Amino acid sequence: MKKLRISLISCLLAIALTGSLIAQNYEFKVMAAKGKPTVQKENSKSWDDIKLGTQLSGKDKIKLAGNSYISLIHKSGKTIELKKAGTFSIAELGKEVSANKSNVSKRFADYFLDEISSSEDLLASGEHRDKMKVTGSVERSMNTQPFINKNALQLNSPRKVNFLSNVFTFRWHEFETAKDYEFVLSDRFDKPVYSKTISGTSVTLNADELKLEKDTYYFWSVKAKGNDKNKSDDACFLILSDDKVKAIKDTVDIIKKEVGDENTPSAKIILAAYYEQNHIVDEAIKAYKDAATLAPDVEIYTKLYKRFLSRINVSEK
Q1: Mind listing the pLDDT tens digit for each residue in 170-229?
Q2: Which CATH entry fits the domain spanning 160-239: 1.10.600.10, 3.40.190.10, 2.60.40.10, 3.50.50.60?
Q3: Do residues 218 and 187 lie in contact, with contact meaning Cβ atoms separated by under 8 Å?
Q4: What pTM, to 2 d.p., does this model score?
């Protein structure tokens, strides 16, 4: 029985090791493409169309026709963008990439690729898989799904946001003919902390002036003045502590170092994925928009930006 148990454990370890090796048996993955880049796989004579997420091994080759573009993520996390026509050896491209030790950027590049593969039409679905979260607990429920009451005043905001800064802005949509709005900020026990009548559809607050605690969730809502029936659903937010802000910024620095040139669309997308997964919405919006702006002719970046805005219930500012 003991020998059988040892044999079984050895077998399971071998299977796990084999699976791990297979998972890493590639040099690059395709992050984005434009035009008609093609790939010639090992032991193949044909050139086939490249799909997003395609794994490329060291013995593969890729070909770019005129006016084509491809963004690749190396297994170490570094990105490469090719814009010139020609044939490229994956092995040679791999030699140009210095290996990273932490692979933080690869983690979020993989999230990005998973986001693409989850839907054929990136604009059609608002579904999203929340896999990585910032630590935090709250007595009241923090529902991150879309707002429910469609007949009420609608917030131009996600249901949940984390802030790096002590100064932040909340926005909402106009409600019929209303000119003034009542903004209410409450703590997690539903006790009002701050209220104000606003002429317009936004308010900027200073956490220090309001003496709000960090790493503590607060809730806010808005209604047209004098009309209790149109009160919006609640949204919640958290002001990250100095330690968490430092941890976020340190990770951003690591990602920027790993991807190489941080001012490329693919690098911006990886940063956007990191910010999004930590509910740091303002920075995520900026990173997604930067990617779309840097490569306006690469459709996937614009689609991802628009899908992100739709998913978080935000209209373009």
Answers
A1: 999 999 889 899 999 999 999 999 999 999 999 999 999 999 999 999 999 999 998 888
A2: 2.60.40.10
A3: yes
A4: 0.76
